[in-house]
Design brief:
4-stranded antiparallel beta sheet, homodimer, 225 residues, alpha/beta, elongated, 37% helix, 9 strands
Chain lengths: 225, 225
């Protein structure tokens, strides 16, 4: 699925009185600026009278000053902070899901490799969750499609198949490739690349998404290392 | 900063024609249901005529069927998928920032410990980024306040201070505690806990946020291990 070039993004965090109309008021204010909401996320709730929610807002195609002015005009908005779009701080995300022992070793390889690319101007994060069980792992694979900035999934375990393989097909259909460790089960037939060593799998995962690397996953598709 | 009890959350992903009015249309539809937008995130853009964006939407206080019906009534909405709220899949997030060597070792401890708690029904993710330089690390510390579900930061490096210490104070002020490795620089005076061994630091970080653990960070504040 091709990506269009990213427009400049303005980012702010602010408090607003919690209520059913809050999101409409925010979206309406953004519309007046001509910008497009890229994300609007409740990062925490604040007890009080009235209760507040703290919102992180990212908007494409608008200057930060214009965005701040539009939000200041909204009733119930308090305490606006200028922040940075999360993509400029945490960048592309490699997601690692599976058993704790393997996830930790994939993370070791991926973090070490990301360090080398981030030193050269890349921004690559390595985000992990250890999970057990077909249902929970399949749900996590499907949810990677909902994670902003997720670029590649590594499945790190000893046995995966069934609904996890179905979820892997769905995830690849939305454009997120998958690397799996060499393991028992049908999953190795439903991923882009199979790598036996977890440190190498983490390293290749980062190389596959780094603009500073010359690794082309398309040329490796279906191979096993 | 106290958190209120979470309401049930409905989550869907859908395509919508990209345009300045898209977020307003979505927020307006949610308002008619009486729900409150918890997050509205563009997960990817799809080239075409017209160009589409794929949106992940989470709404508190509404049934999923009601949410789907409200969105189906919006012009320009296509291809609605039911998803799961990301909090139920990836749960609480430990963020690890710093040098690659140390980040990888903290991740090893944290992933191994999270595995043990996730087996007992917890959901804890370990999200990492290796970075170098005062400005970039300080920006990442500040941005942790903007990350949904971030519960604790681990600073894993050999020397940190200056603006990183200022950023640490700001992050703690919004209610996110920090564990630092024992290192050179002022940072160890601006965190909740200092731990010399990175695997232990990662382990304690997970214990501090796990409901299935009996570790109380409040009772350890200011200590060094």
């Amino acid at each position: 699925m091709p990506r269009r070039q990213a427009a400049p993004t303005a980012a702010i965090r602010f408090d607003i009185v919690d209520g059913p109309a809050a999101a409409s008021a925010i979206a309406g204010a953004v519309t007046t600026t001509g910008g497009r909401v890229r994300s609007l996320t409740t990062v925490r709730s604040i007890e009080g009278d009235p209760p507040l929610v703290e919102i992180e807002l990212e908007v494409d195609g608008v200057e930060e000053d214009t965005l701040v002015a539009a939000l200041e005009a909204v009733d119930d908005v308090r305490a606006i902070h200028r922040t940075r779009a999360l993509g400029t701080v945490f960048g592309k995300r490699i997601i690692v899901v599976g058993g704790g022992a393997q996830v930790a070793q994939v993370a070791l390889g991926a973090v070490s490799e990301a360090d080398r690319h981030n030193l050269r101007g890349e921004r690559i994060s390595v985000d992990t969750i250890p999970l057990v069980g077909e249902a929970d792992i399949a749900a996590a694979v499907r949810a990677v499609a909902d994670l902003p900035r997720a670029r590649l999934l590594v499945l790190a375990g000893s046995i995966m198949g069934g609904d996890i393989s179905a979820a892997a097909d769905e995830l690849r259909a939305v454009g997120i490739p998958i690397i799996a460790l060499n393991m028992v089960g049908s999953i190795t037939e439903h991923v882009d690349l199979v790598v036996s060593d977890p440190v190498q799998a983490g390293t290749m995962a980062v190389m596959a998404v780094a603009d500073t690397a010359t690794f082309d996953l398309d040329r490796q598709r279906g191979r096993r290392y």
